[in-house]
Amino acid sequence: MAHSAPVNTDHADPDHLAELRAALQVDDAGESALGWAGVYAFEAEHGIVLPEPYRSFVAEITDGSFSGPPDFGLVGLAEMPEDWGDSRPVRDLSATFPLTRAWLWEEDPRPYAEIQPLLDPVFDHGSIVLGTDGCGMYWHLVVTGPHRGHIWNISGEGAVPFGREFGHTTGTSGFLGWVRHWAAGEPWFDAA
């Protein structure tokens, strides 16, 4: 599997923020944004720094969007999709996201007893949940570890990184590339 391409997670380009605003049709002069004080408080509470351009997006543009992506909309920074469930472990955003390559645990030959303890960290460590496409398919933005700034699709069957270098899509890596791909009306997994 390909190694992750660098994603600029330190600086938000104003043109990229304008592109995100247009793609998600946000035109409320920042009223739906969390604000910088809200972002700083969330980061301090969880011991992380959000990757750009998502960080500036939630601070200045909007904290969630019904227009998508994904299919059921972009949830707010401190929210979870309605179908997430109440019996899940406590999420630890400061813990390192454990994967650097796709893992389809449904096809893993190891006994389930070996796999099961490895699953909770995939869902609950080092990422924020951006939203759901339903049927247990969640989009995560990794906030810690080697894949910081990358988007992952995590479902009951496995976890797959988003970005053309990973072979599943023609879209570019990161939050901006993910939104661009959605705004262009492309299927998520469109690589031949």
Automatic annotation (TrEMBL):
Q: Which InterPro entries match?
A: Knr4/Smi1-like_dom, Knr4/Smi1-like_sf
Which Pfam family is one of this chain's hits? SMI1_KNR4
Q: Which residues form the Knr4/Smi1-like domain?
A: 41-154
By what name is this protein known? Answer: Knr4/Smi1-like domain-containing protein
Origin species:
Plantactinospora endophytica
